[in-house]
Amino acid sequence: MSYYKINNLEQYFKHYNKSIREPRKFWGKIAEENFVWYQAWDKVVDFNMGEADVKWFVNAKVNITKNCIDRHLAKRGEKTAIIFEPNDPNEETLHISYNDLYSRVAKMANVLREQGIKKGDRVCIYLPMIPELAVAILACARIGAIHSVIFAGFSASAVTSRINDCECKMVITSDGGFRGNKTVDLKGIIDEALEKCPTVEKVLVVKRTHTAVSMKEGRDYWLQPLLYDAIPNNVAEIMDAEDPLFILYTSGSTGKPKGMLHTTAGYMVQTAYTFKNIFNHEDNDVFWCTADIGWITGHSYILYGPLLNGATTVLFEGIPSYPDFGRFWEVIDKHQVTQFYTAPTAIRSLAKESDEWVDKYDLTSLKVIGSVGEPINEEAWHWYNDHVGKKKCPIVDTWWQTETGSIMISPVPFVTPTKPTYATLPLPGIQPVLMDELRNEIEGNQVVGSLCIKFPWPSMARTIWGDHQRYKDTYFSAFPGKYFTGDGALRDEVGYYRITGRVDDVVIVSGHNLGTAPIEDAINEHPAVAESAIVGFPHDIKGNALYGFIILKEIGEYRDRDNLTKEINEHVSSHIGPIAKLDKIQFVSGLPKTRSGKIMRRILRKIAEGDFSNFGDTSTLLNPEIVDEIKDNKI
Ligand code: WTA
């Protein structure tokens, strides 16, 4: 029996139970039967959860791109690997075959090597959703360079801090990017960012928008001429199973973003396994994940997961509302997409438009539809089910994180009966537990607690780049011996999980998790601001929006509050990015604080939500009177 594909519920339970009893055998067999290795492992897993020290497939040697590309060439060389769907529907779609992908990646890998990039070097990739983004990522993996993709919506200062944190040697960017009817000046942002990045030696620039940009002599090179001269063959670097594959930054509840480090073999095994099972992938399918490759969802389910399975994956440059609200559905129809994977925020924003946009396209090619990034509310679930899946496509509500690398809890389509708003059951090999406030494991069903994982899984992040202590403190200290996800969850009467949201100071806005602390830091830098506190509040489209409570220094000096609100938001936009803009700002004279000086966010959250009914225990507050003041002045 192969463990690679789950065919029915009985088999799911069989695999699941086996994976808990004998995790080494379980993952070992999947790894052995489904990938090409230069050398097998000595041990499937070696770990010490207390020290946050985990290794999978110890001493094995592998290259992930050999598994993503080379091994498919004999049988599937002419099969389409990537369908590139441009922002402008009138621009031609590009079908990149596995053969073509091989030579593109080989050429790019050769260019990187010629430009001085070696195994272990960090390369920052700041590109729009164009084929070069996929090719650059795979070329890094080919030669063992560590890619650090930065979402091309981040501002210059956010780029600077990420580049400096992992000391990138090179940046790959483009003259610009198309987004709906706008163009974004990516090269300009990189130029500004690099003013403060001493480690970057070279910048390779893709021509996409043909906008005029400045090129710095000796640092900046156009990529296309270099590729033109490169040889379309490349010998892959032999990587250790635990060699780093990539760094991807995610927001933390305090301080600077965390560079989550993922390594090679474990990430490969679990992204491939989950892709196959969660999307029920078959050979002639066309898979489309609408995320940006700048986020983990794009890494794992636009690129690595599909390519590892020899699938056809859609790379979409545009946005759901351009040229009109039918774009997603038009693309599904045009390419006969069989699996569609998107975020609740996109579903909600399209559900509020006329149903005609979706109903006029032929979506009968769809077999499975998925959701990721935040809890999907019941209304959005039903709209998705009725209008997109036409009640015949199971919805896979997939729970996972940047830190987990791939999907952890999700229905297996046609196997696990779905239930609206529930991520349902853990994948085989994954051992979730719910913990109470006294750090005890909560047994049984119909219970609520903090979601932890009690046994390592292959695609888990191994550390935070340059700060293992922070990795330990953030994820392995709240519940000793276990990985703490930061999410709360409930387990229903049959053992299905429903993720209820973050229990820490991270707010998920439009599917992007934003730490409140870095936003507060940015606001506090504004000369008028003394202190601030950010909380999330429910928002129809975005899931959550940000509400800022702000104390000003000299109240008299800034009489023009509208202007100040605008200025503060511009400041946040330029320091973090437009996604972190505050929807509401309330100027206050103080913030509710405990005696130890910690802001009591749960009270601010209630005020932001407009729920004044019960603030709970406020006796530990240093300044309880401030609660009424803030409540009464709520705008
Ligand atoms: C939330 C995205 C409910 C959760 C892959 C998690 C979800 C955070 C779901 C990670 C889901 C993700 N249901 N909540 N199906 N999927 N989340 O790192 O709070 O961008 O901790 O990874 O998103 O977000 P990240």
Helical stretch count? Answer: 20
The whole-number mean of residue pLDDT values reads 94
Give Rg in angstroms. Answer: 24 Å
The largest sheet is:
8 strands, mixed
Number of strands: 30
Proportion of strand residues: 15-25%
Kindly name the structural category.
Answer: alpha/beta
Report strand order across the widest sheet: 12-11-8-6-7-14-15-23
Bound molecules: 5'-O-[(S)-ethoxy(hydroxy)phosphoryl]adenosine
Protein name: Acetate--CoA ligase
Keywords: Acetylation, ATP-binding, Ligase, Nucleotide-binding
Domain AMP-dependent synthetase/ligase: 70-462
GO biological process, one term: acetyl-CoA biosynthetic process from acetate
Q: How would the blueprint of this fold be written?
A:
Elements: H1 9-21, H2 23-34, E1 43-48, E2 53-58, E3 61-62, H3 64-68, H4 73-76, E4 80-85, E5 94-97, H5 98-114, E6 122-126, H6 131-143, E7 146-149, H7 156-166, E8 170-174, E9 177-179, E10 182-184, H8 186-194, E11 202-206, E12 220-222, H9 223-228, E13 239-240, E14 244-250, E15 258-263, H10 264-278, E16 286-289, H11 296-308, E17 312-316, H12 327-335, E18 339-342, H13 344-351, H14 356-359, E19 368-371, H15 378-388, E20 395-397, E21 432-435, E22 447-453, E23 463-464, H16 468-476, E24 483-491, E25 497-502, E26 506-509, E27 512-515, H17 516-524, E28 529-539, E29 543-552, H18 561-575, E30 584-588, H19 601-609, H20 625-632
The structure holds 5'-O-[(S)-ethoxy(hydroxy)phosphoryl]adenosine.
